[in-house]
TrEMBL record:
Keywords: Iron, Iron-sulfur, Lyase, Metal-binding. Its EC number is 4.2.1.9. This is Dihydroxy-acid dehydratase. Residues 370-577 form the Dihydroxy-acid/6-phosphogluconate dehydratase C-terminal domain. It is an enzyme of class 4 (lyase). NCBIfam families: PRK06131.1, PRK13017.1.
Amino acid sequence: MTGQKTTKKLRSQEWFDNPDNPGMTALYLERYLNFGLTREELQSGKPLIGIAQTGSDLSPCNRHHIELAKRVRDGIVAAGGVPFEFPCHPIQETGKRPTAALDRNLAYLSLVEVLYGYPLDGVVLTIGCDKTTPALLMAAATVNIPAIALSVGPMLNGWHKGKRTGSGTVVWESRERLSAGEIDYDQFMDIVASSAPSVGYCNTMGTATTMNSLAEALGMQLPGSAAIPAPYRERGQISYDTGRRIVDMVREDLKPSDIMTREAFENAIVVNSAIGGSTNAPIHLNAIARHLGVPLDNDDWQQVGHHVPLLVNLQPAGEYLGEDYHHAGGVPAVVAELMKAGLLPHPDAITANGRTMGENCAATETMDAKVIRPVAEPLKANAGFINLMGNLFDSAIMKTSVISKEFRDRYLSNPADPEAFEGTAKVFDGPEDYHARIDDPAESIDENTVLFMRGAGPVGYPGGAEVVNMQPPAYLIKRGIHSLPCIGDGRQSGTSGSPSILNASPEAAVGGGLALLKSGDRVRIDLRKGTADILVGDDEIARRRAELQADGGYHFPGHQTPWQEIQRGMVDQLAQGMVLKPAVKYQRVAQTKGIPRDN
Ligand code: FES
Ligand code: MG
């Protein structure tokens, strides 16, 4: 499959070299000639390579791709291809309201149309900021033309008063200090700004570092590509190498479906545990898998990934940041450590460079064992997710490795039942409701309260908001209680270390059990059994469900844009990858649907 050239006619030739239909061929050709390309370049069978550009002024995390694309182009030309750079729908995690997640499927949808409807033989996916990575990989999965991903790379390490300040993570910490009156508004702003010292994506192990690392673990990037910081010399060099490589991938017809197999997803799940990856990862990987027709669900995340230890010492679970991760060896070093302990399930999975994951990584030495630990000395055991279910929801993800000692002592200290706890529910309908009520003493929130956030899923919010990790009331923080158990049908930022129960599916807005919960209900969570239940009788649940139905179901704010309405009408739940349901049946479109009709 790899290393061998195919004799297949390139799909771009269907546009540019068709003597049976010279009129159309001339029309396709002329506009691409008028910016300096020649007939020789377009008609002689050189692969046409798209560069799916996600960088723009609206997407500062990925903006450096505008520079890197120049090196990608050089690599494409050097290998005998012709580069075609085009813009993707911008997605900025921190800038887009109501949430960047709303736009993941929109960017996906538009890229599918571009990859299929234009004369592209292969594509370089410029990934980085949280949702850009899954959006582009999902589109490459659906169309299934040869594709390779290129990370923009993390920002440099942030520093403030001699301490590393990590993107996002420092916001959560400093917000608590602001609430406790330890710092003022200006000091808060200075600390947070220090955490974003350069171009690049978040330097913590948030969703961006997670998804870029997993794109590499899936085999979709050149080895070592994920962790190189954006401003580094090597970042330009690997951009050039990526441009060169995609041309050969077209010649070898090495497609996303050849690389992103079930085995590759299992490797990625194991790497996700070892890096301490974000709880957003199951949503996005389940989505990519669905677009390829590879079976993958949240049970697989627990089965394949829960027992794997945490090796990477990056914030929020640990101390270090992106530059340290790169210096220690990045993803290849993590994979090598896993391989030494026999924990990488499929070393023979093929990757974008035509070699296997094992061949690429086995010889990589870890350069800093404080940052990437050996399996024998992990930061934490059992770092993967568990998949909870019960009468509150069918599936929700929890990262047990971030449970703090304070939390464990307070909630999981009953010797007879060390992995279970009960509490009294306090229910919030959306983040506005939370902010309005959390500090009100009349709500009588105390250390036995379990905070619930609902109305925050793909339909309710819409898009699924990162609002489930809720800070306790200021009066509890002042008493030294820094976290309460949080459960919800929304998501949590990967930069937050809260041990929340997240991504609950089905969400309240589509009639999930959370819609029936009332403040004051007792709830019981059992981590060993993997259950989460409201402790009220079946009769009472049936009565509440009838009442909810009579009231027209769970209420949430109306649509504000056409896309909000369109997506709400067809989006699946977080546990199922939040994909657009009608899109899933379109698989390997470049092979199954042939070439589009002449225009
Ligand atoms: Fe864009 Fe974190 S906000 S990478
Ligand atoms: Mg986020």
